[in-house]
Amino acid sequence: MSTKSPEDGKADRARLVGAVTLTNLATQRSFLDGQSGVSVLDMSEVTQLDTAGAWAIASFQMAQKSKGREVAIDNATSAQVLLLQTVADAMPASRKRRRRLPHHEAGDMLFELGRSVSVFAVELGKTLGFLGLVLTRLATTILRPSRLRVTALAHHMQQAGLNAVPIVGLMGFLIGIVLAFQGASQLEQFGAEIYVVDLISISMLRELGILLTAIIVAGRSASAFTAAIGSMKMREEIDAMRVLGLDPIELLVIPRVLALLILLPILGFVANMAGLLGGALMAWIDLGISPAMFRTQLAVNTTVSHALVGLSKAPVFAMIIALVGCYQGLQVEGNTDSLGSRTSRSVVVAIFLVIVVDALASIFFSVWGV
Question: Which of 52, 59, 97, 279 is deepest in the core (most CB within 10 A)?
Fold first, then answer.
């Protein structure tokens, strides 16, 4: 048990009695919590003291000290003093919690905005620097083709391009079916079913074919590039390349960039043809437009310029996807959380930039009447 003793007329003195251990820790803490006015703890009648009891006493001292009152320990044995000191030294220092006043919210929001802008500016600068470095290495590779890793290029062409042909073709086919079905339901109201051919061809060739292909490739390849390069960064393989005098940009980035530059236009063409095939099939089933009539209407009102406009965006999309995926991979730190974060960020950023560039290109071609 514990008692408060006003011996010698001193009401600021409390005495701990008996065992101050884990078994009766709740009782001792309850007693100490009620001694907010004491300045001395008398331990002359403490029979046992363990780490839990020492922690309770040290916590009481810290709590009183935070209120501006010092609590001294009296009549403790040397072993008890040593245990109390050891526990007190091991306890974390108390930190005062800073109150956030309501009128500071506007300042906090302004601070967060400034920090976000600063981080964006720094990231933009690093990205532009990485772009310039890659373009320099790409120009060097073009001028000196012997430096190109042909085996790595072929591997990435298969992984990022050829293996994507089935999903890209299926996507284009289904999009063509959807366009034909939705267009037919609207154009039938005006007796203009034949113009569903123009709707399908122009939509697929100019916009949807290459845009959806780029989005699929961004989901597949940007994440794969980031994961592969990020894993090498975590295993310090990239540092080992630099020690050996090898350029990671030339070995890891250039083959991936060239692979997408070569394969993405081909994938866009596959998506366009699959979309036209799906649209022709749905037009034949739903509207009775025969394949011959579909082909005739396609040749009359759709020119090669529509396909060229769409495919002209493919190299830009390829550069964006490859650069974002490789850059995020090189930014991975030495832990798996960073790898996962950078991988998901590469997909989001690549898709976002592809959509933004496609919108700007559409406005550009529309203004110039192309």
Answer: 279
